[in-house]
Inverse folding.
């Protein structure tokens, strides 16, 4: 696990482990998939794939019997968008079965074959016959999801955006401030086009933090789901910097916001298709839509203050999110507002022991820095570009976007920052 630390306003190096980041797999669109397996192991992997967050919109039906069962099934019924066929026989058996399947397969249906032969000649013959992909058995859950996702996202097409959901373990812990500063750093320091989506419709602060007062925002999209497309969402975005845009919350109380679990799905789909990075500022509440938003995000960052209620809530959130995202990296968490004078605090080491994971960062309490930034409608780096906290946000941005290159050593990612601080002392 990567660990950043800031104590007394200065970073402190800690032993760093490599973060194992799975390849970014785009969500599968709303399609029908039917799999015809020959082994229980493959059927189990298919079942696990069907339960993954990236397959939430797809309908996957699993049957046994391989190619023979598939051919028989489609003699009198239409074929789905994708057929997955497992064959545990010889190359000739697989090719002959696919030829029979082709006679009953509707135009436009895509076929993924699973076999046990590592043979380039066989692969070329499968491609010539129109098979979309060939997977070597035994297959795993992410391999299946990646193959299906790849059918609908061409290698030369625009990458599907990565979503990073930032949420507080408790209200008032500074999760929104962290989310906005990370997004600002991703846009400026990594040069990635990014969008901050403020999901706290009645009380959101993104407009204030970025000194923006757009006439429209995310509430317009939520209230007009039938109008949501690229052009409509683009009109709702407010430009903050060359690479950063804001989808602001109305922050008004003239209406109540009783949102359904799928209220934000269409908005997120459009943003994924057009922006490389989307930072979701998720309010501290537990509803159908907040749970769905967190479970479907590519990465989750929980912001906690060093007290008992935050520890309890962070553990509860991590446990439930880990259970619902078995094929994803566990949620990250950081400690914020550390070192408030005369306040008893739970140590980072105690958090790590209780949560079975180290925080990726420990951010000190600095009311002068954060208060000035908030009152001026600025980010921390705009107030003090060389402040260690500003550089810390840059490091976190690299981590949550999968850009961090980390080795298991004491220096690694923080080495340049530590050298700079030593030169200043």
């Amino acid at each position: 696990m990567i660990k950043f630390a800031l104590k007394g306003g200065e970073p402190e190096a800690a032993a760093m482990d490599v973060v194992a980041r799975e390849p970014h797999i785009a969500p599968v669109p709303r399609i029908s998939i039917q799999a015809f397996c020959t082994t229980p192991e493959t059927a189990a992997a298919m079942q696990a794939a069907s339960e993954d967050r990236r397959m939430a919109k797809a309908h996957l039906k699993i049957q046994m019997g391989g190619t023979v069962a598939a051919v028989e099934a489609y003699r009198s019924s239409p074929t789905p968008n994708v057929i997955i066929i497992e064959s545990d026989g010889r190359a000739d058996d697989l090719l002959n079965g696919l030829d029979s399947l082709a006679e009953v397969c509707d135009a436009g249906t895509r076929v993924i074959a699973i076999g046990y032969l590592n043979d380039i000649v066989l692969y070329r013959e499968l491609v010539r016959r129109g098979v979309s992909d060939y997977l070597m058995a035994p297959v795993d859950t992410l391999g299946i999801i990646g193959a299906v996702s790849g059918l609908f996202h061409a290698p030369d097409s625009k990458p599907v955006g990565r979503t990073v959901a930032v949420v507080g373990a408790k209200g008032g812990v500074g999760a929104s401030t962290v989310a906005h500063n990370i997004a600002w750093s991703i846009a400026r320091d990594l040069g990635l086009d990014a969008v901050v989506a403020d999901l706290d419709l009645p009380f959101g602060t993104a407009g204030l933090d970025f000194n923006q007062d757009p006439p429209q925002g995310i509430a317009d999209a939520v209230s007009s789901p039938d109008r949501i497309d690229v052009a409509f969402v683009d009109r709702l975005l407010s430009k903050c910097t060359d690479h950063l845009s804001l989808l602001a919350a109305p922050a008004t109380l003239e209406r109540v916001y009783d949102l359904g679990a799928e209220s934000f799905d269409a908005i997120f789909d459009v943003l994924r298709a057009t922006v490389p990075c989307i930072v979701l500022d998720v309010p501290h509440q537990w509803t159908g839509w907040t749970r769905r938003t967190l479970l479907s995000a590519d990465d989750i960052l929980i912001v906690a203050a060093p007290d008992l209620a935050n520890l309890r809530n962070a553990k509860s959130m991590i446990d439930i999110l880990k259970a619902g995202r078995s094929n994803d990296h566990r949620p990250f968490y950081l400690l914020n507002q550390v070192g408030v004078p005369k306040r008893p605090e739970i140590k980072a080491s105690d958090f790590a022991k209780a949560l079975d994971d180290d925080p990726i960062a420990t951010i000190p309490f600095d009311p002068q820095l954060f208060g000035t930034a908030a009152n001026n409608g600025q980010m921390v780096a705009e107030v003090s570009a060389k402040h260690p906290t500003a550089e810390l946000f840059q490091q976190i941005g690299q981590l949550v976007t999968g850009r961090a290159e980390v080795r298991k050593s004491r220096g690694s990612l923080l080495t340049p920052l530590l050298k700079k601080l030593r030169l200043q002392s």
Observations:
- The longest strand covers residues 162-168.
- The mean pLDDT is 86.
- The radius of gyration is 24 Å.
- The chain has 17 helices and 15 strands.
